[in-house]
Amino acid sequence: MNPSRRSFIKKTTALSAAASLSSLPFSLLGNTQINPIKIGIIGLDTSHAPAFTKLFNAENPKPELAGFRVVAAYPYGSRDIKSSMDRIPGYIDQVKEQGVEIVDSIEALLQKVDVVLLETNDGKPHLEQARAVFKAKKPVFIDKPVAVSFADAVKIYQEAEAAGVPMFSCSSLRYQKNVHAVRHENKVGKVLACDAFSPATLEPSHPDLFWYGIHGVEILFTAMGPGCESVTRFSTPDAEVVVGTWKDGRIGTFRGMLSGKHDYGGTAFGTDGNLFFGPFEGYEPLVVQIAEFFRTKKSPIDSRETLEIYAFMEAADESKRRGGAKVNLEVPM
């Protein structure tokens, strides 16, 4: 065979191979999906929005996060909580650097995406925003707080179920390594008690613990599991302390720190020993769970447990109003 003929065959073979590879759903070289699941973000008033975007849109994401792309974001978000509003312009710039398109309405966003991260830091508009997502039939993760009241939280879950739309909500602290291990890996045997703590900055427009105390309360419930039947709250100038009694007699406590610099953590006490939680390990463990949820359309958390967390926090407020009286939890659904 003459050299020119041999060269022609090699080039033809290479082109054919390239064409075959291009027909695959994944690029073998870049390990990125050609048709990713398109994610939209509602709310750029929280650090979670750029942090989650950075994980999903990384050039070489973790295998668990491959096949996704945050493509669009609607910035609002709070319009009356200054600490949230002031962050929006900077977070717009950060997500735009990750290739995210900024849109001027939730409706415009929903036309461009397959799934939604409802990241609005302010819980007040969550019910209205979630209803738009449910109407569009898009699976949604709703970041904390799920709503600005227990009643709205119940409505969101009921309306998601009625619309047949998969959703879940939680704090990232649920998926800290040791917290998750106590619940899912039997790390301390049967959990007998748990003391959890976190910062608990207050925001006047939200029930006390909804705004930031949710993080430590989520740690408590991840360790103890559902089944709390009553709470009693004690307030000091530096902390809010809530004591919960579970139906089987176990006691769990949450200490929300109001002043000073504090991390997130606690201790689980079990039949096989104790385990300390903390410090904060970042958002990646939660984002991995969100990715799996978007793939499977199955919530990793029972809705009733999440609603019990909000009932616990609202009952804690009621106990405070009653001067520390015991308040029973009531969880519908």
TrEMBL record:
Residues 37-166 form the Gfo/Idh/MocA-like oxidoreductase N-terminal domain. NCBIfam families: TAT_signal_seq. InterPro entries: Gfo/Idh/MocA-like_OxRdtase_N (IPR000683), Gfo/Idh/MocA_oxidrdct_glycsds (IPR050463), NAD(P)-bd_dom_sf (IPR036291), TAT_signal (IPR006311), TAT_signal_bac_arc (IPR019546). PANTHER family: BCDNA.GH03377, HYPOTHETICAL OXIDOREDUCTASE. SUPFAM superfamilies: NAD(P)-binding Rossmann-fold domains. This is Gfo/Idh/MocA family protein.
